[in-house]
Design brief:
The protein is of the alpha/beta class. It folds into 2 domains: 40 residues, no CATH class; 168 residues, Rossmann fold (3-Layer(aba) Sandwich), CATH 3.40.50. Helix content is 38%, strand content 19%. The protein is built from 8 helices and 7 strands. The strands form 2 sheets. Strands 1-2-7-6-3 form a 5-stranded mixed beta sheet, with helices on both faces. Helix 8 links the parallel strand 6 and strand 7. Helix 4 crosses helix 6. It starts with a helix and ends with a strand. Bound molecules: zinc ion.
């Protein structure tokens, strides 16, 4: 017992002061970053509407959030998942039964090694104490070049397909995406979830790129 106490005490003594993940200048204040960096986040103040769908969005896709998302998404800097999940958790999210991360195609997954939205969703789901639900798969996207607006929408919708033999079905879910641009992938995913019997589908994203 005494040994254990000594050990835990000495462990406390050597705990390093964690530096801000963004500037490294100050110590961490919230969600792995310092107070200054936290206040400089380009928060999005209102719920946005894309394709007539309301989307809860934490920030605008501006510096430093754009750089962080790029590093997280394309440079394997997965340690940013905590910060990004915390941005989502600042939103006044509705009560849901499960989180549906925006799926990526098999080709993307092989190329990137992970689904960035799933990595953020894992932390959000853990903190909210709800499961992650992935009943929809995304097929490879064909080029959108030369297509009309309507054809583009149809093209995106055809990418989202319900996985076979899905036993668990949730009624109230929250889609989690990283960056929203046109909102067409969120709309397409919503439509697939509706086909599965979801009655209330909310959507949230880390950043809004207009
Ligand atoms: Zn900082």
């Amino acid at each position: 017992m005494l040994m254990f106490n000594l050990f835990s005490k000495s462990k406390n003594l050597i705990t390093p002061i964690l530096r801000c993940q963004l500037c490294s200048l100050d110590s961490q204040y919230k969600a792995t970053i310092c107070k200054d960096c936290w206040t400089q986040i380009p928060w999005e103040t209102e719920k946005i509407i894309k394709q007539e769908v309301p989307i809860f969005v934490a920030c605008r896709y501006e510096y430093p959030i754009n750089r962080i998302i790029q590093k997280f998404k394309y440079e394997q800097q997965l340690h940013f998942q905590h910060l990004l999940a915390n941005l989502i958790l600042q939103l006044h999210l509705p009560k849901v039964q499960a989180i549906v991360p925006m799926p990526i195609s098999e080709e993307r997954l092989i190329e990137r090694g992970y689904n960035q939205s799933l990595e953020v969703a894992k932390i959000v789901a853990k903190i909210l104490n709800i499961p992650i639900w992935q009943p929809i798969q995304r097929m490879h996207q064909h080029s959108q070049k030369g297509l009309t607006r309507l054809e583009r929408i149809e093209n995106i919708q055809s990418q989202f397909q319900i996985k076979k033999d899905y036993k668990i079905r949730y009624k109230r879910v929250l889609i989690l995406d990283d960056v929203v641009t046109t909102g067409s992938s969120i709309l397409a995913l919503m439509q697939s979830l509706e086909q599965l019997g979801c009655q209330k589908i909310f959507a949230c994203a880390i950043a809004n790129a207009n």
